[in-house]
Amino acid sequence: MLVHETAHRQQALAMAPEKYQAISGPERSLWALTIREEIADCLADRVTGRVTQENVRAFVIENERAFWERFTHEMLTASNKPFGASCR
Length: 88
Ligand SMILES: [Zn+2]
Prior knowledge:
binds zinc ion; 0% strand; mainly alpha; flat; 72% helix
């Protein structure tokens, strides 16, 4: 968990606060959320050999088709915002 959260801290420091808000705030896209979380979990896995929330991986695999449909919809209907449409 510490590595995962440290990765988020580094993401925020590396990006301007308003750009980080685009991937973490209420207007983030599913795509931005996925990239943000996967980067943090990938680093946690590299450092500790474990992902932060193994149950999330199982959930994503179980719902893969629905995620791809949502990704596709968001990517095809994204506005000119840097990270696409809303996650809601
Ligand atoms: Zn996270």
